[in-house]
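Hey,
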Amino acid sequence: MKIKLVFIIFCMVGYSVSAQTLDDQFANLKENSGTYKSYKVIEQTELADFWGVVQDSVSQSKQKLSDANTQIINQQSEIAKLKTTISQKDEAIGAKDYLATHIEALGIDFEKESFKIITYTIIIALMIALGLIIFKYKDNNKVAKKKTGDYERLHEEFEEYKRNALEKQMKLRRDLQTERNKLDDIRSN
């Protein structure tokens, strides 16, 4: 029972003492102490109480420091994790940006704008080539029709010439035969 009473008193003194700052308690301890010559005489119980409060304050400070260090370590590990996550996301974003701005065709990697320019240039060149081919085809077709017409006309003229020449030749043979017959008649008479 005596121990409980001392503990309750100590707790009340500790509570009332802890409500003050250490500087206030030290000043109070110095004020309440007696003096002997140039020395201050402090009761051992008051000194023990003050020392208990100081130890409590120091242990609380150490606990707070330990908690703060633990929190700093936790935060540093979380920062490292977040930096890793950020770098992974940056790489993923970089890869997606690369895919968004590039295209692979025939095993060659092109920027999309360059690919568009090359594609449109090829399409325009093919359209020009097609136009030239169509123009040449039409021109060649006209020339071929003209040549075919000229050939047909020349062929007809040649056939007409052959017929006329054959007719002349036949007429000349008949005339020759008639003259021969006349000559034979004249000789036989």
